[in-house]
Structure formats: structure tokens, C-alpha cells
Amino acid sequence: MDTQPMFRALADPTRRDILLMLRDKDMTIAEVADNFDMTRAAVKKHLTVLSDGGLITVRAEGRERINALNPTGMAPIRDWLTFFDAFWDARLTILKSAIEKDTQ
Questions:
Q1: Which pLDDT tens digit goes with each residue over 6-25?
Q2: CB 5 within 8 A of CB 53
Q3: Lower Cβ count inside 10 Å, N or C end of the chain?
């Protein structure tokens, strides 16, 4: 899976703030925009990047678009980071063995 759109979405502090807000409740564009000193159009662009990255979902309710945190959106990133957990676990195990061998 291509994680580039997800990392692009997470690269901006405003988008990370939006994700934290959506953690608490689903919001319209206007509700999100009320929390920032920027136009609704600018907020919409941020929401589009988050949606393109799979980190939020957008559903229509009448004339409004409701933005919600995608609970599975971070899974590919978590999987990508898990590789590095395993990498460092292996390296630290080797280091521990070397240190223990030197102290005996």
C-alpha cells in the first residue's frame, strides 16, 4: 500500500490538529473552520488531503459534508512503523548480548 498520501496528510500541523478534533466528534467544514483563523476553502483543502490520505471519511447529510476520523486510516502507517520496531528490537538484542558477553 502506498503510504505517501498518509504521510503527506500528517506532515502539516493544522491537519494533525484537525485529526485531534475529529477524534472527539464528527464535524462539518464550518465547525472545523471555527477552530482556525483561515477561510473555509483553506480548511476544505486540508480536509481533502486528510481524506485522500485515508485518515478521515466524509459523508453527506443533506447539504452538509460530515468529516469523521477513519479508525482504520492509521493502520498502514502503524504497519510501516512496526518494521522499525522489529529492526530496533533485533539490534538492541544483539547489543545486549554483546554487552553481557563482555561483562562475563
A1: 999 999 999 999 999 999 99
A2: yes
A3: C
